[in-house]
Design a protein that fits this description.
Helix content is about 55%, strand content about 5%. It is mainly alpha-helical.
Amino acid sequence: MKPLYLAAILLFFGFISVPLRRVLLPDSDFIQDRSKNDKIQKDPPCLTMFSCIEKYSSEYKVPLRYALGIAYEETRYEGPFDWDYDHRKTSTAGALGPMQIMPGTAKWIWDDMKISKEKILVDIDFNVKTSMKLLRHLYSKYKDWKIVFGYYNTGRPCVNSYAEKVYNFKPNKNEVSLN
């Protein structure tokens, strides 16, 4: 098949897939109600998560592999092609969302902001940003990533097995390039 025909076919199916998905899956995670009458398509959580991790790890100067390591250890996030990824997780200790943020920690990090548990749980951007800001703050204080990861896990400066796993984390080379 000639490349031009193939491109035309792919373009056609791309255009009809969004309206069909809206009709067939009106309450799916691919559609978000941003206002009362304005429904728009959004990225799947795995792509949103990766985009946020890249953005905020860079902004807060947290090495990408460490940010991905935290995400993996906290909610088993495996990268941008982890299509079954569910970011809405809650721990038995009360940590919420993709990076497992404690509500008290979020309030401490954003002391001028009123933050609901629902926001921490479902807002991937906010959750990842809070995590990266916390990691940068802890690194500025302790100057040792292993201690930072132990603190993130336990709430006290230590090096534990969690810290070692995050420190030695290697993402799947087929999904994530750290260059």
